[in-house]
Amino acid sequence: MLEQLNQMNWADVKHAYGPATDVPKDIQNLASQDKKVREKAMYNLCGNIFHQGTRYEATPYAIPFLLELLNSDTVQEKEEIILLLVNLALGYEDEYLPQGVDPEQFRNDLLASEAKVTEEQRVNQQKFGFSYPALIQCYDIVQSGIPLLYAFLEADEPELRNSAVFAMAWFPELSAQSLPKALEYLERSKVEMDRCHAILSAGLLARNSREDQDISPLRPYLTHQSLLVRTCAAIALATNPLTPEVLQRLIEGITDDESLNFVEGIYFNEGRIGGYASLTLSNFGKQEKETIIPALCQNLVSANTYQSLDITRAILVILNSDRSQGIRHVGLNDLQAVEIAALKAIYQHGGWTIDGGEFVNYMNLLQIAGLPHTREDLGKYLGL
To answer: Where are the domains of the chain?
Structure first.
């Protein structure tokens, strides 16, 4: 195993902290039988070849060796490697929700960004080991390893099973092979958590497949006894426009039980199923503003700071769906009552602070959406 790892000149490629000479040792240490050694190696790799969502020229060279580790019977905690591989392919994958990944658009956007790079920017990118073509390579190399994961759907460890079906969801070019595997996994699953992963994976694969895919086996789960399973089925089956049944299930998911704000053990959206349902409502149900916004505002009341990001983003998508300019340029008297109520909910219950200070990510979200982006300014706009 890893016989070729040290034959490459890692000093010739860079990661976040310079020449990638430390990468082979970290990859080797992922195979250690010592948990602390593995944890340290994973921490290092999440900081150098995947730094705050960025991948580097060294990253695509590391991926084949990470895939090789998955083939070994002695490597432990393979689910952690699988989750890292998803990050290496996409960055923070939850940024692609609720639609999932359109691979053609993904590649075209990166190629367009590459075409716009100035000579000065290119020199700077080379200095820090970044390139847009490397990001495309990362996605394609990880995709080549997805068939390795099918065997893990039979694993004894639920974490390994579910990380595998989770990873499959982001590579719809393989949906002809992956979707039947996800549906088979769903059919034989007896555990709620397994069912949810299979349902959500199948939904994303079908949504982004270039061919029509039959996910009718998900429909019975809209009436499942578990609110979590029903909500996941509604997320997976959402279309534009939303059917009444799917709309009802999504609203139930964000209003009936605060426990869906975070579900431990679910990999999709880092367990924020309420937030995932909120984003689904906003993307597929813009025409149901009068029904959806009050439900989102109700959910915002019980959300913590991080959870409020998804919910607020969903509210803003609907508020801006038929606007050409930001709300801050619109007089308060020109807003609908439901829109004013939404802004008041954001003012009162939004994720403005974290650890005693301002939550910059939240304010940036509002600013990008064209709202007054400090709580004080939003209060002034609302006359509060």
So the answer is: 1-157, 242-384
Q: If we measure between CA atoms, which residue out of 285, 209, 200 comes closest to residue 240?
A: 285
From the DSSP assignment, how many helices (H) and strands (E) are in the chain? Answer: 18, 6
Q: Do 311 and 296 form a contact (C-beta atoms < 8 A)?
A: yes
- List the structure tokens of 156: 């004894």
**CB proximity list for 73: less than 8 A, separation 6 or greater:** none
Percent of the chain with pLDDT over 90: 91
Q: How confident is the model at residue 297 (pLDDT cuts 50, 70, 90)?
A: very high
Average confidence score pLDDT of the chain: 95
Instruction: Quote the CA–CA distance of 144 and 68 in Å, as a whole number.
Output: 12
At residue 55, φ and ψ (nearest 5 deg) are -115, 160
Instruction: Give per-residue pLDDT as tens, 195-225.
Output: 999 999 999 999 999 999 999 999 999 999 9
Residues 108-139: b if buried by 16+ CB within 10 A, e if exposed: eebeeeeeeeeeeeeeebeeebbbbebbbbbb
Written as six digits, the tokens of 243 are 């059917």
Q: Name residues whose C-beta falls within 8 Å of residue 368's C-beta, 6 or more positions apart in sequence.
A: none
Lookup: tokens for 21: 């000479």
In contact, 112 and 104? CB cutoff 8 Å: no
Percent of the chain with pLDDT over 70: 100
CA 104 to chain centre: 18
pTM for the full predicted model: 0.93
Contacts of 120 (CB under 8 A, 6+ apart): none
Task: Quote the tokens at residue 14.
Answer: 């860079």
Tokens of residue 55, six digits: 């991948």
Which residue in 97, 266, 280 sits closest to 195, CA to CA? 266
